[in-house]
Amino acid sequence: NRYKNIKNIFIAISTDTLQYFKHSLPKTLNNNCILLHNSIQFDRFESNKIRYINKNKPLRLISTGSFVPKKNQMFLVDVVSSLIQKGISVQLTLLGDGKDFEKIKTHISEHALSEFICMPGNVNNVEDYLSNSDIYVHSATYEPFGLALLEAMASGLPVVCLDGFGNRDILINGENGYIISNNDKNQFIDKLLKLYDDNELYSRLSSNAKQFAKQFDIKNYVDKLIEIYTQNIKRNATPNNTNG
């Protein structure tokens, strides 16, 4: 109710967040809710590498994020196990740290997967790890948006991820990657194998991913943010402070 008496603008970073704002705030403030997607430093992650799947080497999967329950990295461990059972040579890199780090590391060791999954922790050169990978995988069950996905796409990586709601604004199925509903491991693996088996498809999605990510560059974001502030200042200006 306090919000009703102020002139705040609520900036949502995804369509899902925007819907949450409109549902949670008083209806009279719906027009004060604006969608402005989060952004990345595109040139930091941009890669000019010509990407293709080299079947003479392991399929290199990568994921970044905090090791907390909603990030659901155990799902990716199970995906790797299933790929190995199917005879696919695979290497998964899990970047990040958090309270579930040791739990997942122990699970990997107990299931004899340490040879196939590495966990370097937090790193300062994420872009180098992305550059040396083939596909970005993401298992979060909820994402307000998904900056890590955009960073991977800027590097030219197709993305296969679970539906985290906020990342629906980023993934276009069959165009820059795949988004899987209902935590379906079999569908997740099916999309990975589809990219693994079809270099023409992989190349197309890689190119599309990079071009899509470019529109979320921070330079574009700053211009839009300044415009939002400027318009709001003008709207709320009084005759006494218009020129102030």
Biggest sheet, spatial arrangement of strands: 5-4-3-6-7-8
Major beta sheet, specifics?
6 strands, parallel
Report low-confidence residues grouped into runs of 5 or more.
none
Assembly state (oligomeric): single chain
Q: Give the beta-strand count.
A: 8
* Fraction of helical residues: 40-55%
Briefly note the structural class of the backbone.
Answer: alpha/beta
Q: What order do the SSEs take from the amino end to the carboxyl end, as H and E?
A: EHEHEHEHEHEHEEHHH
Distance between the termini: 30 Å
Rg result: 21 Å
Outline: globular
The number of helical segments is: 9
What fraction strand? Answer: 5-15%
Q: What's the average pLDDT?
A: 93
What does this structure look like?
With 244 residues, the protein is α/β, with parallel strands linked by helices. Helices cover 41% and strands 14% of the residues. It has nine helices and eight strands. It has helices at residues 15-24, 42-45, 73-85, 101-110, 126-131, 147-154, 185-197, 199-214, 218-236, and strands at 10-12, 33-35, 59-64, 90-95, 117-121, 135-138, 159-162, 177-180. The strands form two sheets. A six-stranded parallel beta sheet has the order 5-4-3-6-7-8, with helices on both faces. Strands 1-2 form a two-stranded parallel ribbon. The longest helix has 19 residues, at 218-236. The two termini are 30 Å apart.
For the structure shown, list the relevant keywords.
244 residues; two-stranded parallel sheet; alpha/beta; 9 helices; 8 strands; six-stranded parallel sheet; globular
